[in-house]
Description:
The chain is α/β, with parallel strands linked by helices and 229 residues long. It has helices at residues 20-31, 38-47, 51-61, 68-79, 96-103, 118-126, 166-190, 201-216; strands at residues 9-14, 34-37, 87-90, 110-115, 128-131, 136-139, 193-197, 226-228. The protein has a six-stranded parallel sheet with strand order 2-3-1-4-7-8, sandwiched between helices. Strands 5-6 form a two-stranded antiparallel ribbon. The chain is globular. The chain starts with 8 loop residues before the first strand and ends with a strand.
Amino acid sequence: MGASRQLLRAVILGSPGSGKHTLSLRITKHFQLKRLSSGDLLRDNVLRDTEIGVLANDFMSQGKLIPDDLMTHLTLQELKNLTQYSWLLCGFPRTLPQAKALDRVHQIHLVINLNVPFEVIMQRLAARWVHPASGRVYNLEFNPPKVDGMDDLTGEPLVKREDDRPVTLIKRLKAYEDHTKPVLEHYQKKGVLETFSGRETNKLWPYIHACMQTKLTQKCQHPHEEKCL
Length: 229
């Protein structure tokens, strides 16, 4: 990975509907990183009806964040399988205790923060549907399914996530803002935070791509400068 061949430890943060899913997939595809999504981990456990999944589902259905100890344990256990790879964490850490727990195990080199206006997020999530078995996400505005209401690969029905419904979503956004502000301040002090502000994922991507390239070659000169579009 890059000229130094050092493994990259990166994080992408953003509120629900900010484009984390789409951008994290692009990053891992273009730069050959392993991607670990806290949302995917949780949904997998919910679908398999594990003990963690049952507990997590209770919190998510109420628009609440998962407790720190539960989320940290789940994520750090999965990271043990990725020690030989550069990786990108999607959606973790979301609280300061989670960030500090991660710091004790791994040095984070880059934190990408997506800053998207509230009204854009609400519009996006109103149009978002998912295939529950796989976690594939569709958006009726820019990534619609080939057949209305059906998954492209299996033909199975798409559903609206309970935590994407307006009342629950507003709770989630408020909880995210309250808990994540200290995390952003934490990483800014460490000099690894990059904030990208904008309304369109495709317009943010070239700037994120350029930052990833410079970070991978150890030449990212302004780790806390905000990019506004």
